[in-house]
Design a protein that fits this description.
With 288 residues, the protein is mainly alpha-helical. It folds into 2 domains: 14-227, no CATH class; 256-288, no CATH class. Helix content is 74%, strand content 2%. A two-stranded antiparallel sheet has the order 1-2. Helix 2 runs antiparallel to helix 3, helix 2 runs antiparallel to helix 8 and helix 5 packs antiparallel against helix 8. Mean pLDDT is 77; it is low at 257-269 and 275-288.
Length: 288
């Protein structure tokens, strides 16, 4: 029975909401960063192989891809540390821990820390909404390319119309307008869509987009969970104060502060006050 009570106490001290939010956030960031990094590498390879024959045509795109990969490294490191802090804050503010260390008491530092986490998480959620929208752009590009490839496969009996179906990377800003060839048409486009590199890049961008969505969901969940914890703590403090006041009123007593009701003279700081003066200064604790 003692082992069962110990296990129940340990399980009761786990902040399940914070744990779920942390796992969602870590999974979303890992999916977004890992798949996004590899998708950018495969995109550069596709552009180099099928859409640009000169290095100067896609060198700007190569630099942009490299910068985005560095940003992904920074995002992975930052959110890894933030996941740890979020989980630690959840263990610190869990109900069982507050009950163990002080009957749902809170310090000004603890309230400030929780409020700071709410503000930071809210700002991250707003910023990540832009990242989520940006992650949809390559998915949109590859979806259009895949739809064009299916149309080419359906019109194989009329070669004249097939050559008019093209995907121009220059229209999406991936390449400058003087890039050669800059586009893929007809059966060449259909061949590209059947390659392993294209299918893998498409799937990686879809996975990165899904990871961005999971990350956004985790940030919103964390923000709501932290705000709900603050409201719950405030309600418990108010309820405890009302119960304490009700007990004093039923017992015929009065609520009084444990601190002196009058200023303590300066010489009392070095000389113990007489018992009579102590009773006047603190009526809640009369001298024995």
């Amino acid at each position: 029975m003692g082992c069962y009570d110990c296990c129940m106490r340990c399980l009761g001290g786990v902040p399940y909401c914070s744990l779920v939010a942390t796992l969602l956030l870590f999974s979303g960031i890992a999916l977004f960063c890992g798949c996004g990094h590899q998708a950018l590498t495969e995109t550069e390879r596709l552009i180099e192989t099928y859409f640009a024959r000169n290095l100067q045509d896609y060198i700007t795109l190569a630099y942009i891809i490299q910068y985005f990969q560095y940003v992904i490294y920074g995002l992975a490191s930052f959110f890894f540390l933030y996941c740890i802090m979020l989980l630690a804050e959840g263990f610190y503010t869990t109900s069982a821990t507050r009950h163990t260390f002080g009957e749902f008491r809170s310090t000004a530092c603890g309230r400030c820390l929780s409020s700071s986490f709410i503000v930071v998480t809210y700002i991250l959620a707003v910023l990540w909404l832009l990242v989520f929208a940006f992650a949809a752009l390559p998915v949109y590009f590859f979806y259009n390319m895949d739809a064009t490839c299916r149309t080419v496969d359906d019109l194989t009996e009329t070669p004249a119309s097939i050559n008019q179906l093209c995907v121009d990377a220059r229209q999406y800003g991936l390449l400058p307008w003087n890039a050669v060839p800059g586009k893929a048409c007809g059966m060449t486009l259909s061949t590209i869509c059947k390659t392993r590199e294209y299918r893998m890049t498409y799937d990686l961008y879809v996975a990165a987009f899904a990871g961005a969505g999971v990350t956004l969901l985790a940030l919103v969940h964390s923000c709501l969970q932290l705000a709900a914890g603050q409201v719950h703590l405030k309600e418990r403090r108010q309820r405890a104060f009302k119960e304490h006041r009700k007990v004093w009123e039923q017992g015929g007593g009065t609520l009084c502060s444990p601190y002196p009701a009058y200023p303590v003279p300066h010489y009392y700081l070095t000389t113990p006050p007489p018992k009579l003066s102590l009773a006047l200064l603190n009526p809640c604790h009369p001298p024995s």
